[in-house]
Amino acid sequence: MVYEITDESFEAEVANCGKPCVIEFTAGWCTMCDEMVPTFEELAEQYGDDVKFCIVNTDEQKKLRIKFAVAAYPYIVLVANGMKTPLFDELVTAERLKERIDFVLNGGKAPTTRPL
């Protein structure tokens, strides 16, 4: 399942949910963002309850767009243990995204990992 996150639901649904969350920041005009939907659905099924997959529509959720400094679409971030790690700012395959998620979850660190 892929969850839609709002400015108001972010704290409960992501920051305090107790498990890693992968977030795709989208915009209504972004066709590549729409193309990521099947990938997110596929990976959400593969990871099951271990990782939560979320979508944020930045046309409507401006506070989250600013908080995460979204400048390119689709923008994909992993949030885990109070840290946010940018994963991609482009259209990617399920295999590439899974590889990057697993790398970060298994202790790999990206130089741009920052506190929430």
Brief summary:
The chain is built from four helices and six strands, in the order βαβαβαββαβ. It has 116 residues and is α/β, with parallel strands linked by helices. Helix 2 links the parallel strand 2 and strand 3.
List the helices and strands and how they pair.
Layout: E1 2-4, H1 10-15, E2 21-26, H2 31-47, E3 52-57, H3 62-67, E4 75-80, E5 83-88, H4 94-105, E6 114-115
Parallel strand pairs: 1-3, 2-3
Antiparallel strand pairs: 2-4, 4-5, 5-6
From the structure above, extract its key features:
six-stranded mixed beta sheet; alpha/beta; single chain; Glutaredoxin; 116 residues; globular
Give the quaternary arrangement of the chains: single chain
CATH architecture: 3-Layer(aba) Sandwich
* Total domain units: 1
- Global outline: globular
Q: Please state the CA-atom Rg, rounded to the nearest Å.
A: 13 Å
> How many distinct helices?
4
| Structural category | alpha/beta
**Top CATH class:** Alpha Beta
Query: How do the SSEs run, as a string of H and E?
Result: EHEHEHEEHE
Can you give the mean pLDDT? 92
Q: Tell me the strand percentage band.
A: 25-35%
Q: Count of DSSP E strands?
A: 6
CATH superfamily: Glutaredoxin
Task: Give, in spatial order, the strands making up the sheet with the most strands.
Answer: 1-3-2-4-5-6
Stretches with pLDDT under 50, minimum 5 residues = none
Helix proportion range = 25-40%
The major beta sheet can be summarized as: 6 strands, mixed
Report how far the terminal alpha carbons are from each other.
Answer: 24 Å
From the 3D structure, determine the CATH topology.
Answer: Glutaredoxin
